Amino acid sequence: MTGTIARKEAAETLRDGRFRWAAAAVLVLLTGALISGWIHTDRLADQHAEAARADRDVWTGQEEKNPHSAAHFGNYAFKPVTPLLAVDRGVTAYTGVALFMEGHAIQDARYRPAEDASASARLGELTAAAVLQWLVPLLVVLLTFGAFAGERERGTLRPLLSQGVSRRALAGGKALGAAAPLALILIPAAILGAVAMALFAPPEAAAWSAPRVGLLALVYLAYFAVFVGVSLLVSALARSPRSALLILLGFWFANGFIAPRLAADVAERVHPGLTAEAFAEGEAAVGDLSWDDLTVRVTEQILTEEGVSTLDSASVNMPAVRLYEGEKMETEAYRALFEQLADGFEGQGRVAQAGAIVAPLLAVAPLSTALTGTDYRHHRHFADAAEAYRYGYVQALNQNLIDNAAPGATWDREYVVGEEVWAGIPAFDYEAPSAGWALGGHGLALGFLGLWLVGLAFAVPAAVARMPLDPR
Amino acid sequence: MSDPILHARGLTKRFSGTTAVDALDLAIHPGEVYALLGPNGAGKTTTINLFLGFLAPDGGEALVDGLDVQAEPLETKRRLAYLPEQVALYPSLSGAENLKYFAALAGHDLTEADLAGFLDRAGLQREAHARHAGTYSKGMRQKVGIALALAKGAKALLLDEPTSGLDPSASVEFSGLVRRLAEAGAAVLMATHDLFRVKDTASRVGVLVGGRLREEVSHDALPTTDLEALYLGHVREAEAPVLS
Fold it and tell me: How far apart, in Å, do the first and last CA atoms of chain A sit?
């Protein structure tokens, strides 16, 4: 029964010239966005790989120098470009693509694509995520607003139900009937994306992406199912197809355009986070940490541990030990500052996700950026890994200085190292987190999306069971 | 006599304190065309809705082929064919596609030959079978409704003002189709105020005014009864206190 209704609904929809035009437009935009996204991603991946190679060459090819000077010479960690950036660019335009790693300081990522973007790009890029989050729901609304209200106005609801069709089967058939034409748009686009990834993405990137693609598909299916459910609910209860359409367009607009801005404003008020001014003050405070106090502390430590009365009698180079301890001191302060900054962003994200109770996009958008690896949390994961690498290699160079510099109280300007030491510092090798990790931070979004689905699974049959048969 | 297909026992329905159908007792047997005569608001459509299960009674029960409509809502509907005053079809589907769809919902999977056969028997011209129903006249839409009754093998027909708005020849043709369905064994309940068509089609007549069945005219008495006088008499009697 449900299948019969679904087939007829799909057949009617496919015959509708307005649907065919709208579907063709969405399909063209979706495939176009995927193709342009893929070209952008591919070019970016090549640029990052080339830049990473060049930076490594610069590092290993640097002239002989003191190990701590090499720590200041620094090197770059380039954020990996995943194939899924072609689907959703998330916050990548604003978080920077490379981190400069050197001694004494943790830096924020540099080279934000948004800084170089044209005016038109700042107004909003057409990505596959934008098509999936805004245009496909609009198509769902146009497909389903008349599901019951239209039948009622046309007078076919009574004869339909007088054939012995249960209202539950009718609701199921209407939902499936909307899904079939949507599948005609989404499946070719999904196949195109899968083929592009299989053919052109490096095997390890494709393997990393595969489970995420599956989960992403489920998230978007759930999102479309929510829109189908809301549309059926409104259509069952509305006075006329026209009022159903108006209500649903209002919901679509509020969900897609008002709720995200409102949620961001509320999140900022509820969870103010660290302002740029406060962050700059924090950075200045790290710079003001007293190296004189550290010198006294390190000197006392060396004299006590070695049981000597002057540093000239000690077996280690005090300035080298001081550099090691200073790096530790500054790193702790910097990490606390960045932690505060990141906690602010993530706190705001959680508050915004709570808005998903009224606007499902507020659940889907963060899940989409999480699964494509383009959210702030992934950026933080990368930045934390880069920081761990930075601290490790800077301290390895400081330890080299401790181990080899001439003992005493003065800076050993004679001690230099070369290629062997540079090559001994391994290149930064970042392992992106798993799909499970990506979802782990979004329990709230998953919960609300699930709540929408469960709520509609009860609400739609209940509304259909009580809906009037004749126009009011 | 065989058991009634459509059976109302003390059937009562009230809306906000107004009794639309008042303890209605009715039994329509196979082969009978029962015309329920009454003015607007008499309770005719409410009675049909009660047999369809679209309304729950406040008292009594409606039975279709011995099954309680409230207890077996889907099964009773499968044994019924329902033609409202305006038979509504899906305009972008052809007559044949509409028939196939509605029949499939009632559990009948029809072949192309079946579809053509039922539409032919209902009198729909061949050239119209594949035409979009959006281009159909009311009479043509009703023929699709009759074809559906044939396809379902419906044991009972519920007709709500079926000839309203039909031209005389379409009306005559429709009456002929209804009689043939009854002759084939269907029980027909026809709610109408078309006295002329009642005389032409019905085998039994009930006058329903203010939700109450005021009088029944048997098949034998029909040829000699002045239905118009009977009908108007009951209507005026019911309206008298209001008019005075």
Answer: 28
Query: In this predicted model, what pLDDT tens digit does every residue of A399-412 receive, in sequence order?
Result: 998 899 888 878 87
Give the position of tokens 């005016």: A119
What is this structure's pTM? 0.86
Q: Does the structure show a pLDDT above 60 at A123?
A: no
In the DSSP assignment, the letter for residue A406 is: P
Identity of the residue numbered A371 = L
The alpha-carbon gap from A172 to the nearest alpha carbon of chain B, in Å, equals 14
Helix and strand totals (H; E) in chain B: 9, 10
Q: Which residue of B has its CA nearest to A8?
A: B101
**Average pLDDT, stretch A12-36?**
86
What would the mean pLDDT of A426-453 be, rounded to a whole number? 91
Mean pLDDT of B12-41: 91
- Residues in chain A within 8 Å Cβ distance of B82: 158-159, 162
CB B75 within 8 A of CB B67: yes
Percent of chain A past pLDDT 90, that is, above it, reads 31
CB-CB neighbours of A215 under 10 Å: 17
Do B78 and A161 count as a contact with CB atoms less than 8 A apart?
A: no
Q: Chain A: residue nearest B104 by CA?
A: A4
A400 neighbors A68 (Cβ within 8 angstroms) = no
User: What is the C-alpha to C-alpha distance for residues B190 and B199, in angstroms, rounded to an integer?
Assistant: 12
Length of chain B: 244
A244's CB contacts (< 8 A; 6+ apart) are A145, A146, A149, A231, A234, A235, A238
Residues of B in contact with A11 (CB under 8 A): 93
Q: Do A161 and B54 touch (CB under 8 A)?
A: yes
Number of other CB atoms surrounding residue A277 within 10 Å: 8
Dihedral sign, Cα of residue A336, residue A342, residue A346, residue A348:
positive
Amino acid residing at A387: E
Q: Return the minimum-mean-pLDDT range out of A36-50, A113-127, A139-153, B88-102.
A: A113-127
Question: Which ipTM score applies to this complex?
Answer: 0.86
CA distance, residue A184 to nearest chain B CA (Å): 20
Tell me which residues of chain B have a C-beta less than 8 Å from any C-beta of chain A.
Answer: 52, 54, 74-78, 80, 82, 84, 86-93, 101-102, 104-107, 145, 152
The tens digit of pLDDT for each residue in A352-380 reads 888 899 999 999 999 999 999 999 899 88
Residue B12, min C-alpha distance to chain A (Å): 20
Length of chain A: 472
pLDDT tens-digit series, residues B36-65? 988 888 899 999 999 999 999 999 999 999
Antiparallel, parallel or unpaired: β A75-78 and A98-101: antiparallel
Cβ B132 vs Cβ B140: under 8 Å: no
Name which of B88, B101, B106 is nearest A164 (Cβ-Cβ). B106
Would an 8 Å CB–CB cutoff place A153 in contact with chain B?
Answer: no
Does residue A109 or residue A6 have the better pLDDT? A6
Query: For residue B164, what are the contacts with CB-CB under 8 A and spacing of at least 6?
Result: B85, B192, B194
Q: Which residue of A has its CA nearest to B158?
A: A162
Neighbours of A285 (CB within 10 A): 11
